[in-house]
Amino acid sequence: HVQSNTVSRRLGRKLTTMFLCCYTDRTITMAASPKNSLPSTLTSEPIKSLSPVGNCQFSDEFAKVKLVGHFPVSKTSFVARFALPDSTKSLGLSTCACLLAGAEIDGNLEVRPYTPISTNADVGTFDLLVKKYPDGKMSSFLSGLVSSDDAVVSFKHIPFNIKIQYPFKSPKNIIMIAGGTGITPMVQALHAILGDEEKIIKNTHLIYGSRSKDDILGKDMLDNWSTGHADKFSVTHVLSDEANEIGEGYKKGFINRALIESIAPPPSAGSDVLIFICGPPIMYDILCGPRGEEEITGVLGEIGYSTEQVYKF
After folding, report:
1. What DSSP string runs through the chain?
2. What is the pLDDT averaged over residues 89-96?
3. Residue 272 pLDDT > 60, yes or no?
């Protein structure tokens, strides 16, 4: 199911080194600074590696797997790398889709959705980009884990986890609106969009809301991708609590109607525009209406976008 020669070569290299059982291309150096120890999933070029729906290694039953790597990214975020049930295969997750993570915390089973930032070009492991929240039970639990032979986190994949599938109705323009960890499904989609040599989707612009520059998840990767694929991908960072002076490519405040209208094609563009949105509940409420409601309200509804033009992750 791999879609390119580049991915095939990478899979081949992975398979020939699996016997080492130590993932030497991704050595974890806890003493190193976050910038010097970023995992390859936050530094690599975008890779289009598609898998059909129904091919995921995880089923609708929870399966425990081991944590094999923990990469600090910032003061509040990290990448957790987990082993796959079958170490000789990739995750096999379709684009876009997520997993459900489950762990027993304080005597209760806590379950949270996570979208891997790794691709199907990675064999034997998958990566989650996690932001630790002060009151987040699962994120706090994951941040305290260390690599071990004991499997304490379970994963499963159910039909509800399957989202809009690439090539996303083939619009000419995609506008991504993300906040915080809502960036992870956008990264998953960007791998397919930017890794597609046929350039089915012509232009993609990411509007990414964060508290400060230090709080931007995957910033180096996004910067590299927007530079290396400037002909079809650009980013606007919106910072709500940045105390220092902001530079080009940044906006201060919150994502609002004026900003969206200055970037996105108008509703009259019809099927040539598709808007993705993912973030905290308040973002949905303000910009498009609650995630569980099909109707488009809020700012995007006021502008005039329809349910066919907006996808709520």
Report:
1. ----HHHHHHHHHHHHHGGG-S-GGG---TTS-TTTT--GGGTSPP------TT--S--SS-EEE-EEEEEE-SSSEEEEEEE-SSTTSB----SSB-EEEEEEETTEEEEEEE--SS-TT-BSEEEEEEE--TT-HHHHHHHT----SS--EEEE--GGGB---TTTT--SEEEEEEEGGGHHHHHHHHHHHHT-TT-SS-EEEEEEEESSGGG-TTHHHHHHHHHHTTTTEEEEEEESS--SPP-TTEEES---HHHHHHHSPPGGGGGGEEEEEES-HHHHHHHT--TT--S--HHHHHHT--TTTEEE-
2. 98
3. yes
